[in-house]
Each structure stands twice: as C-alpha cells, then as structure tokens.
Here is the input.
Amino acid sequence: MSAEKQQMITEPVDNAWSMKIPPFKCEDNIHGLVEESSFATLFPKYREKYLKEVWCLVQQCLSEYHLKAELDLIEGSMVVKTTRKTWDPYIIIKARDMIKLMARSVPFEQSKRVLKDDIGCDIIKIGNLVRKKEKFVKRRQRLIGPNGATLKSIELLTDCYVLVQGNTVSALGPYKGLQHVRDIVLDTMNNVHPIYNVKALMIKRELMKDAQLANEDWSRFLPKFKNKNVSKRQQPKLKKNKKEYTPFPPQQPESKVDKQLMSGEYFLNKEQKHQRKQHERAAKEAEAVRKQKQRREKDFIPPVEESFKGLARRQTNNEEQKLNIKALKRKMIKANSKLKKV
Here is the structure.
C-alpha cells in the first residue's frame, strides 16, 4: 500500500463517516490468497424457481471478482467459493451476504449491490422480540405502514433498501443508514411507533444543511414523545383507603366488663338486671307505638289554608292574564283585516 493511503488511515479523524475508504485494487495483493474459502446457505422451497432463473446472472456477477457459485437444488443450498485468481480477501464475505439476502427474498438486482465497498447489509431478527403472535403481526404491519408508505419513507431517509419477510427484516445500503434502520426496527417491535423516528431523521437531515449548527447539540430540536401507555390491570370495585400512619398503637377497645362497670350494671343482682331489661323493652315498645300512631294519623291532618291576601293575589293575576289574551285577540283581528284589504 502506498504512503499516502497509510497516512489517510493512521491520521486521527474527527468524523469517521466523512472519511473516504481507499479502493482495494489487484495491485495491492499480487500473490492472491493462500487457501480456498467457501460459504453455504440454505434457501426455502418457494425461492427455488426464482434462483434457477437468476443463477446465470449470479455466476456472471461473481466471476468478475474471480469467485465460483454453485446451486444445489436437491439439498436446497447456495455455495460461494474463492479461486486461485481471487485477490480481494474480503469479497468472499460480501458474496456470503449476497446469497443470504437472496435466500431472504431480496431480488438479485438489489442483493448484488452488497459487493461494493461502501454498501453493507443487516439481517435483523424480530421473531423473538414479541411474545404474543397477534402483537407481533400488528407491530410488523406498523413498520410497513398503509400501502408500504412507512417503509418507503424509511428507505428514502436512510438510503437503504428494506424488506420485511417473515421473522426477519433485511436491510441493504450504506453503513450509517443501516444503523438508523436497526434502531427504527427494534423500537417499533418495542411498541414505539416508527413515525417518531422518521420525524427525528427528517429534522436531523435539515439540521445537517446548516453549517452553524454542525458542532452544537441537536437534542433541543428533536421531538420528545412521552409514553402514554396506561396499565390495563383490572382495578377492584371497592378500594380500601389507607389510613394515615401513626407510630403509636391504637387505643385498646373496652371489654364487656368495662362497659358494665361504667354503666353500673356490674354491681346489680339478677332481679335488678331483669327489671332493667324489662324497663328498656317497655320503653322501646312505647316509642314504636308512638311512631306507628303518628304515621297513621298523618293522612287525617288537614292542610294549612292560605290567607285571604294570597287568594286575592291569585285572582288578580288570573284577571290580568285574561285581559292580556283579549288584547292579543284584538290585535290579531286588526292584522287580518289589513291583509284582506291589501
């Protein structure tokens, strides 16, 4: 490698994303690879027809990098191998990612972009992030959005190709965009709507255009969303209000003997106690008889008659109302006679 390239890599860089990776050419590795490397991956049955049609293009694409590709339809696997002419040691890893994406239903036109140096891929497993299947399906559909609108907006903001398939999300694009895609997918499966992250990315894109805000903190510009999820735990109908805490124990309740001592009943003999109970019973019966008598005589009590002044007022009010009705009738007759004349 030349001295200029070594200097570019060894020098400290403030922003690693702004650094351009120098291209790795055939002249940088004249001797080639010492041993053969190979990777294999399985593919589902429904991908067999598509892979048979496209496999000639796959072999042609990999032959440019001096790689071999084999398709085993009996076993259901794809294999990529290096040859003696292969000079790039990392291209076999890129080829492995390409066949993995093709197995996950990514079309060949998109998956072959992984072979470029500035393009990477990420296969995010989402199947084990949500326990209930119904919730998993709803959150996965939320990531796609109505008519794929949410997924399309994620692709435009991150410059990545995103495909939701089964229990995985396949992403393909620049490395910085892949980080954003992974964050959005994981937040969505953790019940955070993807539109929040999409809004934040849109604001960041606008802030990047302003040179004055390049070295400032952007957190004040980004939206802050509060979690409004309410616990769905069933609340009891009758709630017991907690009493105020007091360090002193409550007063001991009075026993039956204490109450008898207070009232003086404790010192009475049996006959006196019996007489006292009879007196109490007789008093209760008398009270009940009195209440019963009042209730029966209530219907026979005459109502309170109004005074002469009240009756006079009522009569005057009725006469005024009658006079007003007569005046209204006269007005109506006059109005009808005028209309007839016209």
